[in-house]
Design goal:
This is Pimeloyl-ACP methyl ester carboxylesterase. InterPro entries: AB_hydrolase_fold, FrsA_esterase, PET_hydrolase/cutinase-like. α6 (212-218) links the parallel β7 and β8 (225-230). This protein has one domain: Alpha/Beta hydrolase fold, catalytic domain (Rossmann fold, 3-Layer(aba) Sandwich), CATH 3.40.50. It is α/β, with parallel strands linked by helices and 286 residues long. The protein has helices spanning 2-19, 40-44, 99-104, 122-138, 158-169, 212-218, 243-256, and strands spanning 52-57, 67-72, 80-86, 108-113, 146-156, 175-179, 195-200, 225-230, 276-281.
């Protein structure tokens, strides 16, 4: 059957050439590609190509403390991948809320959560991230926009540690992005989810030498992983708009949630310049 299809395609191409017609446009490599061909300018901009809207989530929902959903308003692109993001220890979602519209405007549904308690530890934050994804898919007002098979998690500090917990506990996730992550567990050999870890060189709360670096090092290379360390950055770098963070998060989500290989150019060899102290990765293969 496959041979017959190849012959038919070749015959069609010859026929088109003989009659002077143009061949049909090439289909996208991934059915989940969303938006124009990427450029550094698009990724570095404060907003991507999609218009977005947002809706609040009540604190009375089950499993997490409510939050805000950001989503593309377009109805012509089909469903979108989704990501749940947790703030850090003692912090509210507002501390990193710039990530919501930034990521959503590139074609994702984002739920930024409030935690049940601001003192919740990483294991609890991991469970809450998964509860937020379940709510997004099953009970939210935007559930018809979400592809339940293309989900991801992220978080800052203990929220970042929570994203490691969530990805270990739910290997069907498509991506995880711990940012300045803190967790008392140092070994993550059980993670199978493609993971981008972003750390700060001068982080004194979760020093990269005892948190981000060992987390990265113990994740199997077969899972796909990358480590971005920002030059001179403190633990609180995600609490202000940060172009390397935004750019790499979007590129990672595009590549692994949308399976969009157009974004590999931003992952391998990866970012460089004065803002980057170090970058390591496993260079994803198409």
């Amino acid at each position: 059957m496959k041979t017959a299809i190849r012959l038919s395609t070749a015959a069609t191409a010859v026929l088109l050439a003989l009659v002077g017609a143009s061949p049909p446009a090439q289909a996208a490599d991934s059915p989940y590609e969303r938006g124009p061909d990427p450029t550094s300018a698009i990724l570095d901009a404060s907003r991507g190509p999609f218009a977005t809207a947002q809706v609040s989530v009540s604190s009375l929902v089950s499993g997490f403390g409510g939050g805000v959903i950001y989503y593309p308003t377009s109805t012509s692109e089909g469903t979108f991948g989704a990501i749940a993001i947790s703030p850090g220890y003692t912090a509210a979602w507002s501390s990193i809320s710039w990530l919501g519209p930034r990521i959503a405007s590139h074609g994702f549904v984002v739920i930024g959560i409030e935690t049940n308690s601001r003192l919740d530890q990483p294991d609890s934050r991991g469970r809450q991230l998964l509860a937020a994804l379940d709510y997004l898919v099953e009970g939210s007002s935007v559930r018809s926009r979400v592809d339940a098979g293309r989900l991801a998690v992220a978080g800052h500090s203990m929220g970042g540690g929570g994203s490691l917990e969530a990805s270990r506990d739910r290997p069907s996730l498509q991506a995880a992005i711990p940012i300045a992550p803190w967790n008392s567990t140092k070994t993550w050999s059980g993670i199978r989810v493609p993971t981008l870890i972003i750390g700060g060189e001068n982080d004194s709360v979760a020093p990269v030498s005892s948190h981000a670096v060992p987390f990265y090092s113990t994740i199997p290379a077969s899972s796909e992983k990358a480590y971005l360390e920002l030059n001179g950055a403190s633990h609180f770098f995600p609490q202000s708009v940060n172009t390397p963070t935004g750019r790499q998060m979007v590129a990672w989500l595009k590549r692994f949630v949308d399976d969009d290989t157009r974004y590999e150019q931003f992952l391998c060899p990866g970012p460089s310049g004065s803002a980057v102290e170090e970058y390591r990765n496993t260079c994803p293969s198409a």
